[in-house]
Amino acid sequence: MAERREHVICRACHAQCGLIVDFDAEGRPVATHGDKNNPAYAGYSCIKGRELANYHAFSTRLTHTMKRRPDGGHDPVPWRDAARDVAARTQEIIDQHGPNSVAIYIGTFGYNTFPAQAFMLAFMKAIESPMVFTSVTIDQPGKGVASALHGAWLAGSYRHHEWDGLMLVGTNPVVSMLGGVGMNPHKNLHDAKQRGMKLIVIDPRVTDVAKRADLHLQCRPGEDSAILACIARQIIEEGLYDKAFVQEETEGFAALKAAVAPFTPERVAVRAGVPAEQLVEAARMYASFKKGDVSCGTGANMSGFGNSAEYMARVLMSLMGHWRRAGELKRNVGVLIKGFPAMAASPGSAAAWGFGTKLRVRGLEECTSGLPTGALADEILTPGPGQIKALFVLGGNPMLAWPDQIKTFEAMKALDLLVCFDPRMSKTGLLADYVVAPKIHYETHGTTALNEFLGNFGGGWGYEEPYAQVSDPILPTPPGSDLCEEYEFIHAMAGAMGRDLSVKTMAILNPAEADAHRTRFKAGEPTPDPLTAWDAVLNGAPISFRDVRADPDAFKGKVFDRQAAVVQPRPADWTGRLNIGNPAMMEELNDAALRLGKSAETDDFPYRVISRRLSDILNSTWHEDPVQRSRVPHHPAFMNPADMAAIGVQEGDIVELESARASIQCVAVEAPDVRAGCLSVPHAWGTNPDEAEDPLGAGGNTGRLSFNDRDFDKRTGIPLMSAIPVRVRAVRAQAAVAAQ
Ligand SMILES: Nc1nc2c(c(=O)[nH]1)N[C@H]1C(S)=C(S)[C@@H](COP(=O)(O)OP(=O)(O)OC[C@H]3O[C@@H](n4cnc5c(=O)[nH]c(N)nc54)[C@H](O)[C@@H]3O)O[C@H]1N2
Ligand SMILES: Nc1nc2c(c(=O)[nH]1)N[C@H]1C(S)=C(S)[C@@H](COP(=O)(O)OP(=O)(O)OC[C@H]3O[C@@H](n4cnc5c(=O)[nH]c(N)nc54)[C@H](O)[C@@H]3O)O[C@H]1N2
Ligand code: SF4
Ligand SMILES: [Mo]
User: Fold this and answer.
1) Is the pLDDT at 180 greater than 70, yes or no?
2) DSSP alpha helix (H) spans, 320-466
């Protein structure tokens, strides 16, 4: 029996599950588990969360900020000294090269800690550098672009308890917790299926969700926009669309109809490798949904036509009027995040690019998904005015996560100053001048604001109800450690440079309104305490952070008593309409149409490496946990048995995957659920290019297989990160490995 129990928010991924940690008599955390009384998660937990308490005491955990020696090794330094040194070097770089020579990259864990992100953005504003890069443009950048061009629907889409149909494209939400079946994905999917919800899955792999699908299109990768265009064409051709909705709420129907005309089921079937009848069936099934949703994930965004795939997903929803209508109720009206007004209207198409910072390379520029991270290595390596000389990496790991690892490596080495905020010595940290060791997870205050925030951007993301949880630190920092929160370091650094920080709230989605809710932290004043930092970051929330914290139940996670909003009709003089025929997207469809009739195969590189996530591991994090390692001992390349036989590969052999760029090594795992011709390989594994290959340990880095300057999207800069053409050979047999 536990001596003490603490409710916590798991921050091991974006899902922010409400968990319970049991402590023994000595005050040590002994077990972590789900909380069946939690109204949003209903007992859900995953292995990463159940292991999170141990993560605080990993052998690889940094207990001090590290500073690089001239010989490349690192020594511990007091963090306040490091903040002063980094400030001085940053100021020198600004004096010599101008503010644009300083860039930041915000990765996965730059989101999980809202104050870190808000303070880092305030720092960039203080030094007047616009060079803010994030992982969004190497993740699902089509979302931001498509949503702007198609136009948002202010009242949002339906939530999973309402769906009678769902289409998932290149996403596996049961593992990723993103993609749209809510916060207890197994239970929600089960309940929805019991209720009669129909599920269509488009994925080259029989994923966890595909196993439960009513219709699974096990397509070739990289053909999603063609498949969705075909479904739209069929729906239009058979007259199955919601004519009243299309007439009243959309514009561009004629352009759409013309652009999708080439995508006949017969032609798309040949290109995408699925039967024509299945495409027709998918169209009829989707059109039969009354309250449906289409959700695209990383698979659809990383394989070449992400903008038009995301756009066509929205177009299908608009053709069927699958948006929340006037008079209906919107249950989640927000707790810590103020979303959009519940109105059955669209502001209409907005510019997705052409308004912001221009890069110097490949004609790329800021878009609605941010600055193209796919081109950041070039911005560091290309000489001349505006060359990036200093990079701050907040909770990310470029060396294992960015495309084109070889170029990334050159870029990291070329920097005058590289600072990582990371609790361990990551592969990027190895190359950094400073690795700032932060307090993590259970050593800090937490809120569920991030997941609530995400709920405003993806179909079925975030919470159904006005749910929130807050948490206080439950673990002390390791004995003898010298740790800070990321925001404290940023504040100290800004102070040493004599710059005030004007921290913008993250709690308000309307940009102008958010801008009016800034909190100023003056240079030279003491570092704000964590609750004051959170106050600033959540300034203007529907329920104030302090009021949420005043409710004892909020520490366990609760649904707040807020009245559901009745969706208001569009005002009579409203001009905005959903744009289903945007010219730029019709042009991208034309490009996809040109490929119809051509073979998707190439002789030189006949296989395709496709991305996937593992439930035990989050990107490059968690690999060192012994429990996870015992569950995933090697870096797997999941292969269809027919391909294994054709190449002469056995389960457990080391295989080499060679692209036009480079080759990597992984361990072959037999997987009948993977489409023949594809290798399903998790990303963010591997070594740095100057380290020995380690196929049985660190594995191979799929980012090394891609060029960042070929086959890249001209708007978001994302290159092929899935559907990467390769050839495959066995390099060492399992028996030889075992005999070592
Ligand atoms: N080929 C291919 N490449 C991909 C993908 C793919 O599917 N295929 N996926 C892409 C996607 S979607 C993404 S989002 C990116 C991920 O890109 P990144 O965010 O750059 O990579 P991560 O591995 O998530 O890095 C997270 C880092 O945060 C550190 N960390 C953990 N906890 C904390 C904390 O509390 N505070 C701080 N400051 N740091 C912490 C971890 O140690 C780790 O080094 O990778 C992309 N790369
Ligand atoms: N356990 C765990 N959870 C995670 C992460 C993790 O690493 N581990 N990462 C987090 C991050 S950073 C993100 S962005 C989300 C991502 O969440 P998801 O987008 O749901 O990511 P995946 O689970 O990799 O699912 C992508 C699917 O796309 C398929 N696919 C690959 N290429 C193609 C293609 O061209 N077309 C189609 N239709 N399908 C294709 C793959 O087979 C795979 O099943 O997950 C988050 N959650
Ligand atoms: S799904 Fe994410 S938040 Fe939930 S327990 Fe697992 S790692 Fe933690
Ligand atoms: Mo991601």
Assistant:
1) yes
2) 376-381, 398-401, 405-414, 449-454
- Span 468-485, average pLDDT: 96
Local structure of 617: helix, strand or coil: coil
**Hunting for tokens 């109105």 — which residue is that?**
343
Which tokens in the block code for residue 366?
A: 């800021």
Q: Topology of 93-138+350-436 in CATH?
A: Rossmann fold (3.40.50)
Residue 738 confidence (pLDDT): 59
**pLDDT of 566 over the 70 cut:** yes
Ligand 1 site, residue 422, Cβ cutoff 6 A: yes
SS3 256: helix
Segment 534-550 shows an average pLDDT of 98
Dist. CA 588 → ligand 1 center (Å): 29
Domain with CATH 2.40.40.20 in the chain: 601-738
Which tens digits make up the pLDDT trace of 227-284?
A: 999 999 999 999 999 999 999 999 999 999 999 999 999 999 999 999 999 999 999 9
Question: In the structure, what pLDDT confidence band is assigned to residue 59 with cuts at 50, 70 and 90?
Answer: confident
SS (H, E, C) 583-641: HHHHHHHHHHHHHCCCCCCCCCCCEEEECCCCCCCECCECCCCHHHHHHCCCCEEEECH
344, 154 Cβ separation under 8 angstroms: yes
Ligand 1 pocket member 620 (CB < 6 A): yes
Find all residues with CB under 8 Å of 529, minimum gap 6, and list them. Answer: none
| CB 48 less than 6 A from any atom of ligand 3 | yes
**Start-end of CATH 3.40.228.10 domains in the chain:** 142-329+577-592
Report which protein residue has its CA nearest ligand 1's atom 28.
Answer: 395
Token look-up 């789900």 returns: 34
> SS3 sequence, 657-709?
EECCCCEEEEEEEECCCECCCEEECCCCCCCCCCCCCECCCCECCHHHHCCCC
Residues with Cβ within 8 Å of residue 364, at least 6 apart in sequence: 358, 372, 375, 714, 717
Alpha-helix runs per DSSP H in 598-640? 626-631
Compute, in angstroms, the gap from residue 496 CA to the centroid of ligand 2. Answer: 41
Residues within 5 Å of ion ligand 4 by Cβ? 139
For ligand 2, atom 26, name the residue with the nearest CA. 171
**Per-residue confidence (pLDDT) for residue 735, from 0 to 100:** 56
Query: Residues of CATH 3.40.50.740 domain(s) within the chain?
Result: 93-138+350-436
Ligand 1 centroid distance, CA of 697 (Å): 19
What kind of fold does domain 142-329+577-592 have according to CATH?
Answer: Dimethylsulfoxide Reductase; domain 2 (3.40.228)
How sure is the predictor about 711, in pLDDT bands with cuts at 50, 70 and 90?
Answer: very high
139 CA from centroid of ligand 4 (Å): 5
Does the C-beta of 179 come closer than 6 Å to ligand 2? Answer: yes
Name beta bridge partners: 57: none
Helix/strand/coil for 654: strand
Q: What is the dihedral sign for C-alpha 168, 170, 171, 172?
A: positive
Confirm if 676 and 642 have CB atoms less than 8 A apart.
Answer: yes
List pLDDT tens digits, range 646-697: 999 999 999 999 999 999 999 999 999 999 999 999 999 999 999 999 999 9
Residue 301 Cβ < 6 Å to ligand 2: no
Residue 169 Cβ inside 6 Å of ligand 2? The answer reads yes
Atom of ligand 2 at shortest range from CA of 616: 1
* C-beta of 440 in contact with ligand 1 (< 6 A): yes
Mean pLDDT of 128-156: 97
CATH number of 601-738: 2.40.40.20
The best mutation among 48, 450, 454 to test binding of ligand 3, ranked by most ligand atoms within 8 Å of the C-beta, falls on 48
Q: Give the three-class secondary structure for 361.
A: coil
Statement: residue 401 has pLDDT above 80: yes
